[in-house]
Each structure stands twice: as C-alpha cells, then as structure tokens.
Specification:
9 strands; 40% helix; 221 residues
C-alpha cells in the first residue's frame, strides 16, 4: 500500500505536470480513483463529469491524459453495417491490475473475490495479456444495443478472431457467443478462463487457459 501510494503521488504530482498538464493533481487523482469503479464499462463522459462537477470535455481530457501515460486503455468499438444497432462508445480499462486493486482499496485475493468488480478485474487482466501476446493493433470490442457482445475482436491478416474472458472454472457457450460468431464471421472464438485445459465448446468456439494465450493459433502480427 505504501509503495502504491508513493507511486500514485509521484505520478500525479511530478510525472503529469512534467508533461505540461495544468490539471490539479487532486482533481486527476479523484478522477483516476473514480475511473477504477468504471473499469471494463462503456465510457460515459457525462456521468463521470457530473460526479466530478466538471464538463464532459474536461472528463474526456482527463481520460486522454491517463490513456496517453499508459494507465488507461481505451478500447474502441467495432461497427459496420450489420443491420443492427451497435454500441459506438469505447470501453475503459485500467491497464495495470495492481493499480486497479489499489484504487479500489483491495489488499488481498479474498477482498478481490468478494468485490463486485471481480469479474471486470479478470476481464481487464486477461485482455491485457491477450494484447501482449498478439498485439494491440486492430483491437476492438463489439456490442449490440440488444445485449449481444464480444469482449475482444482482433483483425489479423484478413481474419477475425474473437475472445471472451470468463472468470470461471467451467466456461460455457452463451447465446451472445453464437451471435458474435455468426454476425462477425469469426475464424474462432476463444473463451479465455483461469483453468488448465483447452477443449472445444462448440463449432468455432474453444475454451483456452489464460496461460496458453501465446500458443493459440492466431496469425502472427
């Protein structure tokens, strides 16, 4: 905790001003902590702006500051003319799980497992590991207004690969997965989970342990 507090203070009071930012460290620190509670959610500048009593333009600026310093990942939506109403706002993730847990006030695994952001924490961690393994270029999420979604879509050499991140020992196929495979014409949908065995779930849908991400047969970046 002391190390994290020192890191956050140095980042806000020295690193950010060193980039020429005029945002008060206290304001950006409040925004950073607030953003931790929105980890893995669709970006809503108006909602955060109201909570901070600032304008949506200011909230967007704070977000971009944290994204530009590699603290936050802004995952853009994928949309094309599918004849469906699609979500067109990005998703927001804190890129470092340790920082996320510190800002949420979590000190150990039991605390994390009881927290309502446990699943979102796993999604963000697995997302970052996937992008380390296969590159962050042409990476998107996909969601429709009716509830179908895909956590991560990677476009590689003309092919589309999907990823769902499930914090469970027994991942199962959902209706949303079937829709994503069909609508996006995925080469394969990998359901990344914290287990130890790779196995098929359905046609073009495979459960994949997180530890085996680097070995999944995507085309090289």
């Amino acid at each position: 905790d002391r190390w994290m507090e020192s890191f956050a203070r140095t980042f806000l009071e020295r690193d950010i001003p060193g980039l020429g930012s005029k945002v008060a460290p206290e304001t950006l620190g409040r925004f950073w902590k607030m953003l931790a509670h929105f980890h893995g959610q669709i970006w809503n500048a108006a909602e955060l702006a109201r909570s901070l009593d600032v304008s949506p333009t200011a909230a967007n600026h704070y977000r971009d500051l944290l994204a530009g310093t590699f603290m936050v990942r802004v995952l853009p939506p994928w949309f094309e003319n599918l004849g469906k109403r699609l979500v067109k706002s990005p998703k927001i993730f804190l890129r470092d799980s340790g920082v996320l847990h510190h800002l949420l006030g979590l000190r150990d695994m039991p605390d994390l497992r009881m927290h309502p952001r446990y699943g979102a924490s796993w999604e963000g961690f697995a997302l970052e590991q996937t992008l380390v393994a296969h590159g962050a270029r042409d990476a998107y999420f996909w969601a429709t207004q009716r509830g179908a979604e895909l956590d991560l879509l990677l476009l590689r050499q003309g092919r589309r690969w999907g990823f769902e991140f499930k914090c469970t020992d027994a991942p199962a196929v959902t209706k949303s997965m079937h829709i994503a495979v069909q609508d996006l014409n995925l080469e394969r949908l990998w359901v990344v989970y914290p287990g130890s065995r790779t196995f098929g779930l359905h046609d073009r849908i495979t459960a994949l342990p997180l530890r085996d991400l680097h070995a999944s047969p995507l085309s090289p970046v």
